[in-house]
């Protein structure tokens, strides 16, 4: 037993994994050996899910069959939509609403009671969860605006169908492809806090719905998934101020505020996902005829690198990308969850294959040997 | 960075804590310096919650005020009861139902949007969650049997009120006190997997509802909270067989089955909670005029110690205790959650006070440098 306190578990190896590797010094990310740049450019989100869950990229027939099986699971039970409607009416936080609705899915999952050690059943549950998250999220976003949910379509990709259900309008190819790329980029990223929380939950041989629910709740925090929303709030605040972006950042730093979207526990150089999303953000700006948000972002990026030595992470460019797609700001983190569910499920299933209960210890620093005194004599 | 794989994080110190200490070799458990034997004998569950959350045992005035504030929070919103009813109708697993309902509580919590760093707000949320779990659980248990939920009473203790809501009948003093003792014994236990999952979630500065929801999902697993139910199923199976308890255990071990309720990651000797609950189980049996389940349990305990060198853990005697109280077997783990919520909340709040994002790493063992090939050429 080591007696050193390893708070935050920084650098501590808790598992072996074949899923993704991050080289933080080289700015490199791979999923099962494939570079994120290749996957972002050439693979659909559906192919990436298959790669993560089943170990290799699907051939055409496997991909068709897998895609069909996902499409068939897009609808959610009426009871779930009722609860989502109640949460929307109560103005619930979107991540909290997603946490509740995904937790509730288990009540209607035919494999809910299968043991966690049945990997096939776990991946069937994973398929249903991943297929249904966009439906839940789009329904919530619409219902809180007083609109009816839009039923999923079977002829659209995972990415395009979400945008269709959100807006009741089929997205054009640029939007659909950009969104698909964003899903690919966020699908897995080593043992980030939400993925690790899914593994801790799974390590008691609890069910997959529990593991994914834990992960959603963990991603909700401002130190993790919440950061992409903070970036956009910051860009808008800079825009609303009478300063230029750099002047605004200088002032914010002087006031002791944190500039969101920079720095990362693992990357010392620029996050490769930020590189790819930056390009997409630029393209979206050009297509829309205004590159304002992209230009704001690059100016802040340059400043932060020169003055603080900090490079942007994935949250920094997902902000302007989603904003230019017209997605409500408080839906950015749920979109992160929508994509990352693939990785959560892959890691939970992988960990359980060679399971060991995750139970660390704390160093006790409280009092010893307290004498109990009855309440009336205290 | 250490390169040694620390799977399961056994013995790894991830935090400092003033909450509880387990001496596994001495069979000793303390909450903030008070021995579990003293607390079980002299303190109510409400006093123990106060001790864990606020650092010391309350005086009479503090206890009154705290108890009143908990009592005032016992009711749950109609929307929550609607969803609990849907879950009951869908025959949802009780732990999964509790996970969903507790997650949903945040939609109606006036402090839901307060930052995780506001400890007062976090403890107000904790008070509401802890006060409402018994109401949710009793409603679920009744509704799945086709009965109406019973509204909480204000004149009963936390323990007695739960039994009242569950059975629509005020419990006698022996039942109420035994149940209160069980709640005291389960309130905290270092960084078990569910408590640790609450800390991982809280470490992103996510909200307390997320942290407790993670913990419920983690406790659900058969390697953690599920074990107390397994013990009772085992005792009943032994009873239904034509063997005596020891013959049944011998046969089960020969068949390669695991005997639930024995051994613990931390204790090498008898779990002190098992000692106390064993006495309570015996008293309940004597009061009811039949000591069958207690006697079964002690015979198995003696056999396992002599033959396997394994001592019983808390789950072993909570099984026969709850069974003799007439509680449905699949509610045992939710009762564990009902009690442990005190510890989850205490640890989440304590960790955030000096927070560090919990993000370990995995050793990558997958392929490197895969060449991407288009789907049509695979």
Describe this structure in words.
In chain A, strands 2-3-4 form a 3-stranded antiparallel sheet. The model of chain A has no long low-confidence stretch (mean pLDDT 95). Chain A has 378 residues and is mainly α. In chain A, a hairpin with a 4-residue loop joins strand 2 (20-23) and strand 3. The two termini of chain A are 39 Å apart. Chain A has helices at residues 36-42, 45-54, 60-71, 78-89, 94-105, 119-143, 158-167, 173-186, 193-202, 208-219, 227-240, 245-254, 272-288, 292-308, 314-324, 332-353; strands at 13-17, 20-23, 28-31, 34-35, 361-364. Chain A has 16 helices and 5 strands. In chain A, helix 9 crosses helix 16. Chain A folds into 2 domains: 68-220 and 332-353, Citrate Synthase, domain 1; 227-324, Cytochrome p450-Terp, domain 2, CATH 1.10.230.10. Chain A is globular and about 70 Å long. Chains A and B meet through strand 1, strand 4, helix 1, helix 4 and helix 5 of A and strand 1, strand 4, helix 1, helix 4 and helix 5 of B. Strand 5 of chain A pairs parallel with strand 1 (13-17) of chain B.
What are the defining features of this structure?
homodimer, 378 residues, mainly alpha, Citrate Synthase, domain 1, 16 helices, 5 strands, globular
Helices, strands, pairings?
The structure is a homodimer of 378-residue chains.
Chain A lengths: L12 E5 L2 E4 L4 E4 L2 E2 H7 L2 H10 L5 H12 L6 H12 L4 H12 L13 H25 L14 H10 L5 H14 L6 H10 L5 H12 L7 H14 L4 H10 L17 H17 L3 H17 L5 H11 L7 H22 L7 E4 L14
Antiparallel strand pairs in A: 2-3, 3-4
Helix pairs in contact in A: 1-8, 2-16, 4-5, 4-6, 5-6, 5-10, 6-7, 6-16, 7-8, 8-13, 8-15, 8-16, 9-10, 9-16, 10-16, 11-15, 13-14, 13-15
